[in-house]
Amino acid sequence: MALSTAMKNAIRRVVQILRAYATAHGWQPGEYQIYIRPNEGWGYIEVILVAKEFPGKDYFEQWESVIDFLEKELKHDRPLFEALHLVLQTFDQVAEGGLYAIGSGYEEADELLTGRPATGD
Amino acid sequence: MDRMFTKLGDALVDLETAWQARLADAEALFAAGRNGGAIATGLYALEIRLKVAICKRLDLERLPKNFEIHDLQALLLLAGWSRRIDRKSARKVKAIWDAIVRQSEELNKLRYTGDKNWTHAQAATFLNQLKDPPNGVLPWLSAQR
Q: Which of A115, B56, B100, B106 would you label with B72, given CA atoms 20 to 30 Å apart?
């Protein structure tokens, strides 16, 4: 997928923020995965954050924990924040498949940004 | 009006009845245990509901052919509500919306693979996200002006 420099920079920024979120919650590399599906034509970026579990008692609290972090970090870049679609999934859900399968339109963040396959470590 | 031109795009009046019919179909399929069909048909209902919103926003009696697309986020943008759903007051709807947009990309799989790939629980969650107030996407869309 040939992405514009602006889109790559936007994705890189979002991924950095999500990694900071992961670090803040004590997650090690390999304990979470970030999948991205950008749509340059319509100007949005879909993000799936996969982890073993998320802080919060229900899906909305968990989602809000991440989206609030993104909003705070992107407070000076509202258009980028508004371009994001965030979905949280556990590794168990991904393994369940069906609606929770990671579709072929998504790419692991490292792979998307570097063109190299993710190593998972 | 030219006969050919009248064939361009679906009429708003038809779209209005179609989205409600597809939603009823989704519920019937769910009740019959047809999980994949229920999810796919529910996604059709949402897509058509957004096209109704676009026609109303743009004061059109027919949906332009160029708007006959299936990208839910693009349709929300064309309806003029893509920023509204990002407001703090709509946070719970946005969480659901993002999940549904992501699920809509599985529509091709829903068309071409067997029903065993989608569980009853997944279909139940999806239909709740779609239609249950107060944070279901369809009730939220209906509340927008």
A: A115
